[in-house]
Design a protein that fits this description.
mainly alpha; single chain; 0% strand; 84 residues; 1 helix
């Protein structure tokens, strides 16, 4: 009788420990996967945002340069016409 009780207690204890270990392992794996997924999403979002900002900045600079060049050419032509 005592042996059975001891066996049961030992089995329960072993089961609890196994369950805890399994839970911890599962939690770690899930955490890692979640972290990786979150990191990927964050990286993509950051990349998109950075790309948009860079594109806008480049477009502005290009537009300004084009405007300046056009203005200079127009001014030169006007000056030439006026000088004649």
């Amino acid at each position: 009788m005592i042996d059975r009780q001891t066996d049961r207690q030992t089995d329960r204890q072993t089961d609890r420990q196994t369950d805890r270990q399994t839970d911890r392992q599962t939690d770690r794996q899930t955490d890692r996967q979640t972290d990786r997924q979150t990191d990927r999403q964050t990286d993509r979002q950051t990349d998109r945002q950075t790309d948009r900002q860079t594109d806008r900045q480049t477009d502005r600079q290009t537009d300004r340069q084009t405007d300046r060049q056009t203005d200079r050419q127009t001014d030169r032509q006007t000056d030439r016409q006026t000088d004649r």
